[in-house]
Amino acid sequence: MDAQESTLIFYDIASGPPVHPYAPNPWKARYTTASSLFAYSNYALNFTKTPYRTDWVALPDVAATRAKLGVAPCRKHADGSDFPTLPVLYDPTTTSPTRQKGTFVGDSFDIAIHLNNKQLSKDGGRRPLFPPNTIALHRTFNAHVHNLFTMNGVLLAGYYMPFDPATAEATKADMARRIGVSRWEDLDVPPGSEQRKKMVAGFEAALGSGLAPWFVRRDEGPFLEGNTPMYADLIIGGWLQMMKNCLPEWEELKGWHEGLWGRLHDALEEWAQVS
Question: From the first residue on, what is the mean pLDDT of each consecutive set of 10 residues in the chain (275 residues)?
Fold first, then answer.
């Protein structure tokens, strides 16, 4: 199998031009491929130095793309209906029980596990994405971080997502309908308003009580375990990338809790390439 045939394909949500990743879950996977160590989809691809290319998908086309690829939705809306989203990873070098060639993986956490296992099968001497016997703990941590950012950061940053102007109006109308508001503009909490100041303070407090205490080796390095990164760091890093791309108060956030979040984000930049 030549290099082109063995290159993984990573399906990610396209922003407005210039196209760049901004959604947290694809970032988790991207981090994983660039390093010889680990990953959250974008981080994960980069962390493990896995050769890949990105196929950008317009947000209104995500559901049709997953259906065309034969990858069932892995998430649900609040009303219980399917929520087809990205990332999806296609690995042509492996096989699955239902395919003669190639494997599709349609969830950022499962992508990390897939890349971790793929890496270990080739070079067991490399440090894995997941320390031994921690996948279940990482899955719980992933849910915890998801809830923390969704209930706080997304309420502040979501309105400023960098939609593609060509499809922005349709995307905003669909999101407003799913959220349960009559207009997208109803979600705007203007920077500087008293309501927003209270929400920003609540976000800072939530990170301070719900996540900052997990960093018990701050004097040794920027990661949860000091100088040693693992997938849990990439989970947080994926959400920080969304905040960087969408949150007006990003510079302020980086300085919270003695600069903890800015240091972690900067340390993960080594694995933030986009292929």
Answer: 72 84 71 44 69 89 95 83 90 74 91 85 68 95 96 95 92 89 94 97 98 95 94 94 95 98 95 75
Q: State pTM to two decimals.
A: 0.89
Instruction: Give the integer Cα–Cα distance in Å for 14 and 20.
Output: 7
Number of helical (H) and strand (E) elements in the chain, helices listed first: 11, 5
Alpha helices in the chain (DSSP H): 3-6, 24-30, 41-47, 62-69, 108-122, 135-151, 153-157, 168-179, 194-210, 231-246, 250-268
Local structure of residue 12 (DSSP, 8 states): E
Structure tokens at 189: 């909490």
**Could you give the CA distance from residue 148 to residue 144 in angstroms, rounded to a whole number?**
6
Residue count (the chain): 275
C-alpha span between 211 and 236 (Å, rounded): 9
At residue 92, φ and ψ (nearest 5 deg) are -75, -10
Per DSSP, helices labelled H in 152-249 are 153-157, 168-179, 194-210, 231-246
Beta bridge partners of 95: 102
In the block, residue with structure tokens 């900067």: 266
CB 270 within 8 A of CB 35: yes
Residue type, 58: A
Q: Coil, strand or helix: which one is 91?
A: strand
